[in-house]
Specification:
Elements lengths: L6 H15 L18 E6 L7 E5 L5 E5 L8 H4 E5 L7 E6 L4 E6 L8 E6 L15 E7 L12 H17 L18 E3 H16 L5 H17 L11 E3 L15 E2 H17 L5 H15 L17 E2 L18 H9 L7 H8 L6 E6 L2 E5 L29 H18 L16 E4 L2 E4 L11 H5 L6 H14 L1 H4 E2 L2 E2 L3 E2 L4 E2 L5 H15 L2 H7 L2 H10 L7
Parallel strand pairs: 2-8
Antiparallel strand pairs: 1-3, 3-6, 4-7, 5-6, 7-8, 9-10, 11-12, 13-14, 15-16, 17-18, 19-20
Helix pairs in contact: 3-4, 3-14, 4-6, 4-14, 5-7, 6-7, 6-8, 8-16
Length: 558
């Protein structure tokens, strides 16, 4: 006879005994707590809902955070923060509305204009039921423009003179002391720029014309510059690098393989040199010698040696170490039309019309024939690209009445500028501050570096040079922009050498930089608007007349 309980019976009995021993004690798992429901429901700044990024706020903004329930006032101070972009705490007051379900924050003192701030409420905020806020909230807030004038009102003529004179100082006072050439930017030290110096030469001519310096002082500076270019500056097939060392004249590589000739930068320099030659037309030995030296420099540029393997197209770069490895043909439409005009105008190394037609014009494929805002655009990318496309080549080359087989260049530059203006007024990306007074997209510094802004690459940055360099094309719109830059933003962007390079009201950012390639065109084109001086001088060059005819251009100015 078997003794004891079967195993399964003993296990069941043990379970029963344990269950019996637990009677009278609360050992059940408690039910889960209800999910937190205290949450943010709405946010307004000065009564307007704009999400979590708000531009154009008043300097005493009223910021209302609405929640799904009543806030526990004792948790508010620790949960709320108000600070500037640099992290400085901003004192603020707190009030309550809607039975404490709306928390209202307001700075104790007025905020700074066009400045970014951050306002946040963390999950340390609790409801009166001790429910923590479901998730934190952060508001990025930028204050409005100060609409008061920063300087006394001047006549337009006086204002133009003031801006030209201040901008002129970049190329006069800040020029490199040894070479006399223009520094790339205000922080460049020894780095001087070839193209920017070409613009600077034209600025100096305009400065003499305006009486900012004497003709004798200007002539002495021209001798210094031309002498340096002749005897110290490195050249390759007569062409100059993008950057030079201002004391030694040696190349400063623009990039790893861009350590030789830059034909487009050279073209900008030659444009300036020819303008200087035409201005200093006196018969005395000094001016005669200057013209002779300029001719020697210009005639030494071997334009047709930049046709790689004899192809009917010019190439932008040629290096003594890397030869053609940069491999960038100069094709239109962009800022480089002047390169082909000067190459065709050369008295020593000219290109043929076939190089222009097949290279720059890409066998006619240069034609775009777009239409934007009801305006025909013969050439270029959609919306025309950055405005420097219609400015750099036309500092000396007069586009008014200029035509060839591919375009009416007066239509091209005027419509390109008007399209850029209309885009900024329409402001399809909602960039804060864009208006009929604040416009102009071109290459410039920006908060993240440098970019060529355009309607297709709009990062919210306006460059004063864009509208100012367009003054001969859109005088009324450019003058409105000038008034806005000077009178309304002058406390932010009007500095030692005129207007700083760029600004973004969208990001409350203002550059502290000056760039030769932006300062120069603005001053030059203001002069072309006022007197046509630089256009008249450059178009008077006999070789330019011949070169334009060689390429099939028609112009009332040649």
């Amino acid at each position: 006879m078997k003794t004891g309980y079967p195993m399964i019976t003993r296990l069941l009995l043990g379970v029963a005994i344990l269950a019996g021993c637990g009677k009278g004690k609360d050992t059940a798992t408690p039910p889960p707590l209800p999910a937190a429901t205290f949450s943010y429901t709405a946010l307004t700044v000065d009564g307007a809902p704009r999400g979590f990024v708000y531009e154009g706020a008043g300097v005493r903004p009223v910021i209302r955070f609405r929640f799904s329930g009543k806030a526990d006032r004792s948790t508010v101070p620790a949960a709320c923060a108000f600070s500037s972009r640099t992290g400085t705490a901003i004192p603020f007051s707190v009030t309550y509305e809607n039975g404490d379900s709306t928390v209202v924050l307001q700075p104790v003192s007025p905020l700074a204009y066009i400045t970014r701030y951050q306002v946040s409420i963390s999950t340390a905020l609790q409801s009166v039921k001790k429910e923590p806020l479901l998730s934190g909230i952060t508001l990025q807030l930028t204050t409005q423009i100060d609409s008061t004038d920063k300087f006394p009102r001047l006549s337009d003529d006086a204002l133009l003179t003031l801006v030209q004179q201040r901008t002129f100082q970049y190329f006069w006072d800040f020029a490199h002391p040894v070479s006399g050439l223009a520094r790339e930017r205000n922080t460049s030290g020894e780095t001087v720029t070839t193209g920017g110096s070409g613009f600077g030469l034209m600025v100096l001519v305009a400065g003499i014309h305006r009486g900012f310096i004497t003709r004798a002082a200007g002539l002495a500076r021209m001798q210094q510059i031309v002498g340096f270019l002749q005897h110290k500056a490195v050249k390759y097939q007569g062409a100059f690098p993008h950057w030079l060392h201002g004391t030694t004249g040696q190349v400063i590589p623009f990039s790893a393989k861009d350590n030789g000739a830059d034909l487009v930068e050279t073209a900008f320099l030659v444009q300036g040199l020819l303008t200087v030659r035409q201005y200093f037309n006196g018969n005395d030995p000094t001016e005669t010698g200057l013209r002779k030296d300029i001719n020697a420099l210009c005639d030494s540029v071997q334009w047709n040696r930049f046709q790689k393997d004899g192809a009917n197209v010019l190439y932008w770069h040629r290096s003594p170490d890397y030869n053609w490895e940069m491999n960038l043909p100069v094709r239109g439409w962009n800022e480089a039309l002047i390169t082909y005009v000067l190459a065709a105008s050369s008295r020593t190394y000219p290109i043929t019309k076939a190089v222009y037609d097949e290279g720059w014009a890409d066998k006619g494929n240069i034609r775009h024939n777009g239409r934007y805002y009801g305006l025909a655009l013969p050439l270029g990318p959609a919306f025309g690209g950055p405005l420097f496309f219609s400015q750099y080549s036309f500092l000396g080359l007069n586009p008014m009445g200029l035509t060839d087989a591919y375009a009416d260049y007066q239509t091209q530059v005027l419509h390109h500028t008007q399209i850029n203006y209309q885009y900024c007024v329409a402001n399809p990306k909602g960039m804060y501050g864009y208006s009929s007074d604040c416009w102009g997209l071109t290459a410039s510094d920006n908060p993240n570096g440098y970019t060529a802004s355009s309607p297709l690459n709009d990062v919210g940055v306006i460059a004063p040079t864009a509208a100012l360099s367009a003054m001969p094309y859109t005088p009324a719109a450019s003058l409105r922009a000038l008034h806005f830059f000077y009178y309304k933003l002058g406390d932010r962007i009007w500095k030692t050498y005129g207007f700083t390079d760029a600004f973004s009201l969208q990001q409350a950012w203002f550059a502290d930089s000056f760039l030769a390639i932006d300062q120069g065109p603005a001053m030059i084109m203001m002069e072309n608007y006022r007197s046509g001086l630089l256009w008249q001088l450059f178009m008077s060059c006999p070789e330019i007349k011949s070169g334009l005819h060689r390429l099939g251009f028609q112009s009332p100015h040649v």
